[in-house]
Design goal:
One of its GO terms (molecular function) is catalytic activity. Residues 2-202 form the Endonuclease/exonuclease/phosphatase domain. It comes from Acacia crassicarpa (northern wattle). This is Endonuclease/exonuclease/phosphatase domain-containing protein. Pfam families: Exo_endo_phos. With 468 residues, this protein is α+β, with helices and mostly antiparallel strands. Among the domains are: 2-208, Deoxyribonuclease I, Chain A, CATH 3.60.10; 274-349, no CATH class; 353-385, no CATH class. It has 16 helices and 17 strands. The strands form 5 sheets. The protein has a 6-stranded mixed sheet with strand order 4-5-6-7-13-9. Helix 3 (90-104) runs parallel beside helix 4 (134-146), helix 6 (232-241) packs antiparallel against helix 7 (250-272) and helix 8 runs antiparallel to helix 9. The protein is globular, with a radius of gyration of 30 Å. The chain starts with a helix and ends with a helix.
């Protein structure tokens, strides 16, 4: 693991050797500084190793917890890092959780908590064996809630511990990395890897604070905050009408109009929607300047206008993160930007695909190999298997559609039905491959409805003709 990942700091649990032997191993692994908690009887000890380009100050140390403040010269690291070994016995484990709660009271910056907790957050984190008592699960969940910690997304095996008993194998996710909201905001790219166990019944955990994966070209995405701008409909109208009508190919015409809208909206957005956080900071700075010195009537009016602009910027920022969070049970309007932002970070990290297993059982990690495997899978999935006679099977299926129902179903689709269907779509649902969500059509229906309805009716007639 040391050769592959080149860690700056290492945490070892249940060590069975004393600090003298531990130092020899530490030096062989290329580390210069250490902290040991000596083993006591059958209970193993703890060890933290780090390189001399890091400064580690211990705020609290016990046989189960090492709470530190870390500073690094050559890399960006969390302010607080707590290394944890949860005791196997529930009563002792609860006492350790209480210590973590007390430590959390004094943590105001980014905080990473990592180790073997000997506990799980749900029954889904255990495979086989007796179910974990719900009181234990609830107590562990309460720990995360009380300390404002998030369970960091991981890549690798779902479970981190195995009893390795043939015929009675039990696996659980006992090891994990947790971070507070400040950690998630400061280290958006942080990723946890579960490394295959060698010489242990536990997987190793690697926390990469600044994980960099292959960048893909940024795709166009229709932004929800655009529709609130006073010029939005006019921008769409100009772009939509600059494309000439194509009588013989309505699909090509519709695609051309959408492409014109995309280009004009992107250019317009760069002018009207700069970085929200920078705009808010700049406006707040201007507001502070207004409130300094003598407050004249002119300054009071200026401050009032600035507050209005700040409020608009906050609304835009909230809509931006709400759209990306895909949270459907919480709506905009209550300044939930921070919550939405962290939801986006969690979802992005969870959705990253860093490796895939092919049909031969080999893991593919190169981006080109993963892309090729995806293409091959879906080509095979949607490959036609040839037509099959279904008349004999359908003869045994009872007819439940009445003649009257069939006549109603065969009626031509009306414009109002198409409009009703468009406005029933979820405005924040995932957009199509062109990047336009349902919100675009709903917000600009007056400008785009004619061509959209025409194309839909033509497409529907073509489909009906091919089915006859």
């Amino acid at each position: 693991m040391v050769k592959k990942f080149h860690p700056s700091i290492i945490f070892l649990m249940e060590t069975k050797i004393n600090s003298v032997k531990g130092k020899r191993i530490m030096w062989k692994c290329g580390f210069n500084c250490d902290l040991f908690v000596e083993p006591c009887g059958l209970a193993g000890g703890l060890a933290v190793w780090w390189k001399d380009d890091m400064s580690v100050s211990v705020l609290y140390k016990s046989k189960n917890i090492v709470h530190t403040v870390i500073e690094a010269r050559n890399c960006h690291v969390p302010k607080y890092v707590t290394f944890v070994y949860g005791p196997p016995k529930e009563r002792e484990r609860r006492a350790v959780w209480d210590i973590l709660r007390s430590l959390a009271l004094n943590v105001k910056e980014s905080w990473l908590v990592v180790g073997d907790f000997n506990d799980i957050l749900s029954q889904a984190e255990k495979e086989r064996g007796n179910p974990r008592a719900m009181r234990k699960i609830i107590n562990f969940q309460s720990l995360l809630s009380d300390c404002n910690l998030l369970d960091l997304e991981f890549k690798g095996s779902k479970y981190t511990w195995c009893n390795k008993r043939p015929g009675a194998t039990v696996r659980e996710r006992l090891d994990r990395a947790l971070g507070n909201v400040e950690f998630r905001e400061e280290f958006e790219k942080a990723m946890v890897f579960h490394v295959e166990p060698i010489g242990s019944d536990h997987h190793g955990l690697v926390v990469d604070y600044c994980f960099i994966d292959g960048k893909t070209p940024r795709a166009f995405r229709f932004e929800a905050n655009w529709v609130a701008h006073r010029d939005f409909c006019e921008v769409v109208k100009k772009a939509w009408n600059e494309v000439e009508e194509v009588l013989e190919d309505k699909l090509r015409e519709l695609c051309a109009r959408l492409e014109a809208c995309r280009k004009r909206l992107v250019a317009w957005s760069r002018r009207e929607f700069p970085n929200f956080r920078k705009v808010i900071d700049l406006l707040r700075c201007e507001l502070r300047n207004c409130h300094s010195g003598i407050l004249t009537a002119e300054k009071l009016q200026q401050a009032e206008n600035l507050i209005k602009h700040i409020d608009e910027a906050w609304d835009n920022e909230e809509r931006y993160w709400w759209q990306r969070s895909r949270i459907t049970w919480l709506k905009c309007g209550d300044r939930n930007s921070k919550f939405f932002h962290n939801s986006v970070i969690q979802r992005r990290q969870r959705n990253k695909i860093l490796r895939l297993k092919n049909e031969q059982g080999c893991w593919l990690e190169e981006k080109e190999d993963i892309n090729r495997l995806f293409c091959e899978f879906y080509r095979g999935l949607f490959k036609s298997g040839g037509s099959r006679p279904l008349e004999e099977t359908l003869a045994y299926v009872p007819c439940v559609v009445t003649v009257e129902d069939n006549e109603n179903l065969m009626q031509p689709v009306t414009n109002s039905e198409i409009e009703e269907a468009v406005f029933q779509l979820g405005s924040n649902k995932a957009p199509g491959p062109d990047g336009f969500s349902a919100l675009f059509y709903q917000a600009s229906w007056k400008e785009v409805s004619k061509e959209v309805v025409t194309w839909f009716i033509i497409s529907l007639r073509a489909t009906e003709g091919s089915m006859r």
